[in-house]
């Protein structure tokens, strides 16, 4: 079974540039030098060096046309031109030496060779560049030794300038490769940072959800343990069933505490451990949250039903508070001093809770925000909390300026398992 080869031509020099004129620059330079060097080379070789006109034209074509190939395949173009230049030097041995004429490399050969060494330096690796330079040096020394009387020292200048251009081209290529690698690494790091942020928010929600579920499991355990004492005349089978339910609930609580130990970060075991075990806030704490925000210098208007809704599912209660907290924190960070309105309402049919946080633009448009880029943790946390209860979230800028966060949290929640298996 034959292996398929990639026949796609390599990218042209500067082909990755964002500027259109930079991408076309190598083609323009190649066409310009071909238009100048092709007729000049044929004329100089035939009239000044004395070669046969047909041979001069053939050598001129081989020495100049590959410049266009060098835009995509500079090493191959260099090999063709180098071979043609060596053939030209050998052909010039068949005609009488001309006083003052450079040999073994003609002026046109020096120009196209310098152009090609720069192109090779921009594309090839260090070992290849060293091999190219050593091959040029070896050919120059060998040809000079064949006819030392023709040498006027120009070959040394070509060798030195070619080495300089190879070093410069190689340095530019390595710098470009390093910049591209850095850009790719930044892209990967950004994706990893976003994934880590999502996992951190899910872990935080899982730790808070532990308190909610643990409360329900504790209630089940107490009810199952006390059932034989509260209900008279229970048959032995029912007593055993209640005992089994209580044992299973206690075992589940133990497993949940083990899970929480895995999810809890190291810094939560010290001074922060008490905050992890504190009662989780709910809708009734939103007025205190707004009051603290007002004291921080943010004008906030609060609209809530009176009396406050009671008997909310604990996940909805906690999510409403956290979403309001994150939204207000984002206003403080990105639009300090902006007028903000917080609204918490119960749906007309009593099926869910609506949390709305809307802020206008900052009063001082020239004042820099406390954070210019942000980490995205707030919006990520809001989305995950809404998913936890099977609700919807609508966020985005307002047409006249400002920002809007609208979350609907249904009272009939989906299984929290969906959040952590997604």
UniProtKB/TrEMBL annotation:
A Pfam family recorded for this sequence: HATPase_c
Entry keywords, A to Z: ATP-binding, Coiled coil, Kinase, Membrane, Nucleotide-binding, Phosphoprotein, Transferase, Transmembrane, Transmembrane helix, Two-component regulatory system
Catalyses which reaction(s): ATP + protein L-histidine = ADP + protein N-phospho-L-histidine
Histidine kinase/HSP90-like ATPase domain location: 319-412
Coiled-coil stretches noted in the UniProt entry, renumbered to this chain: 181-208
Signal transduction histidine kinase subgroup 3 dimerisation and phosphoacceptor domain ranges (all copies): 201-266
Catalytic class of the enzyme: transferase
An MF annotation (GO) of this entry: kinase activity
Keyword Nucleus: no
Transmembrane segments annotated in the record for this chain: 25-45, 51-71, 78-97, 103-122, 129-147, 153-172
EC number: 2.7.13.3
PANTHER family named in the record: NITRATE/NITRITE SENSOR PROTEIN NARX-RELATED, NITRATE_NITRITE SENSOR PROTEIN NARQ
Name of the protein described by the UniProt record: histidine kinase
Provenance organism: Streptomyces syringium
């Amino acid at each position: 079974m034959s292996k398929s080869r990639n026949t796609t031509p390599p990218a042209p020099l500067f082909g990755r540039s964002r500027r259109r004129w930079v991408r076309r620059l190598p083609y323009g330079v190649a066409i310009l030098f071909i238009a100048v060097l092709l007729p000049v080379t044929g004329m100089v070789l035939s009239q000044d060096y004395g070669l046969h006109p047909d041979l001069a034209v053939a050598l001129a074509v081989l020495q100049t046309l590959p410049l266009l190939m060098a835009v995509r395949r500079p090493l191959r173009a260099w090999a063709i031109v180098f071979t043609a230049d060596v053939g030209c030097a050998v052909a010039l041995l068949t005609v009488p030496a001309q006083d003052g004429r450079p040999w073994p490399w003609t002026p046109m050969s020096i120009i196209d060779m310098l152009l090609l060494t720069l192109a090779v330096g921009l594309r090839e690796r260090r070992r290849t560049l060293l091999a190219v330079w050593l091959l040029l040096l070896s050919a120059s020394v060998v040809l000079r030794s064949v006819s030392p009387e023709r040498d006027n020292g120009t070959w040394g200048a070509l060798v030195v300038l070619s080495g300089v251009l190879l070093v410069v081209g190689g340095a530019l290529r390595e710098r470009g490769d390093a910049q591209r690698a850095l850009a790719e690494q930044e892209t990967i790091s950004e994706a990893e940072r976003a994934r880590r942020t999502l996992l951190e928010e899910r872990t935080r929600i899982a730790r808070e959800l532990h308190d909610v579920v643990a409360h329900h499991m504790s209630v089940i355990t107490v009810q199952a343990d006390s059932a034989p004492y509260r209900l008279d005349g229970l048959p032995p089978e029912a007593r055993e069933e209640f005992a089994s339910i209580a044992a299973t609930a206690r075992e589940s609580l133990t497993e949940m505490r083990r899970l929480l130990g895995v999810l809890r970060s190291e810094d939560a075991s010290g001074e922060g451990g008490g905050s992890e075990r504190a009662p989780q806030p709910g809708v009734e704490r939103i007025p205190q949250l707004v009051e603290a925000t007002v004291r921080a210098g943010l004008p906030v208007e609060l609209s809530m039903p009176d009396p406050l809704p009671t008997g909310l599912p604990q996940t909805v209660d906690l999510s409403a508070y956290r979403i309001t907290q994150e939204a207000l924190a984002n206003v403080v960070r990105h639009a300090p001093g902006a007028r903000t309105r917080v609204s918490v309402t119960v749906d007309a049919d009593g099926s869910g809770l609506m949390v709305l946080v809307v802020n206008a633009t900052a009063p001082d448009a020239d004042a820099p925000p406390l954070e210019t880029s942000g980490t995205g943790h707030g919006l990520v946390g809001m989305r995950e909390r809404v998913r936890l209860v099977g609700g919807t979230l609508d966020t985005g800028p307002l047409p006249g300026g400002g920002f809007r966060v609208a979350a609907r949290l249904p009272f009939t929640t989906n299984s929290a398992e969906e959040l952590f298996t997604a």
